[in-house]
Amino acid sequence: MKQRIARWLDSDVGYSFRNSPVAMLAAVIAFVCVFCAVFANWVSPHDPFNLAVLELSDARLPPVWSAEGTTKYLLGTDDQGRDILSALMYGARISLVVGLVSVLLSVLVGVVLGLCAGFFGGWLDAFLMRLCDVMLSFPPILIALLIAGIGRALFPDAHGSLAFGVLIISISLAGWVQYARTVRGSTLVERHKEYVQAARVTGVPPVRIMLRHVLPNVMGPVMVLATIHVATAIITEATLSFLGVGVPPTSPSLGTLINTGRDYLFSGEWWITVFPGLMLVLIALSVNLLGDWLRDALNPRLR
């Protein structure tokens, strides 16, 4: 493991990372957010969603630096007495899981369709590209909102796992188009190169050529696009949850936390909304900065 890390640090990408303070700072912020989200059960000071330990007398307490604040709740509490700091850790977990899984599903669908469209061409290419044009004519958030709303209407009494599945599918269907168009353009270039022609002459099946020869050479732009798309998917999930068609209201998503505190924003309890919003901004900004660095590191023309 240590040898692999040392080899990566000595590579061109590792050298670019070591000489980019912005990328290193973004990586530290992203690591802290992910670590706190994954190990929220152990690092959070309270369990904000355990009804047995909630105290309504502690509701709407300000942060610790305020006059009425207490060290028991560093960032204050919400209207039900839940610790904001602990709620942020649990909420970031759901937002990250939904964002990562939806991006992985979008990458899988987009890469497969784009690879087939660029490699085989003909009517399949024309059909898939026209489908992409139709999908691009609608805003992604509108597509996700429509699909999530239809899922809620068809399954009004759905339990948590089904609601999460509908949310992930809605975000994935709104994001696969970019991967399909990117992979299709790269595949059109790669399929005419000598190594692909040599594989065809030797009788290698088309599917094997696509998977073993073309696919590895078109994954660079996909990695950059997926990194940036993670932040977009997290923001989309927060938006849908804020509008009430995302995760169930009882789930500690960042969107539901922001929605909970909006009624108290103008009455003085600003921390209920501001801190979840800042957490969302930190995650999205750090992931976007890492995506920008990865784009520059993998593109020799930008060095």
From TrEMBL:
This is ABC transporter permease. The keyword Aminoacyl-tRNA synthetase does not apply. Its main location: membrane. Residues 92-291 form the ABC transmembrane type-1 domain. Keywords: Cell membrane, Membrane, Transmembrane, Transmembrane helix, Transport. It comes from the Bacteria. Belongs to the binding-protein-dependent transport system permease family. It holds the Pfam family OppC_N. The keyword Transcription does not apply. The chain crosses the membrane at residues 21-43, 94-124, 136-155, 161-179, 218-243, 270-294. It is found in: Cell membrane. It comes from Variovorax ureilyticus. It is a multi-pass membrane protein.
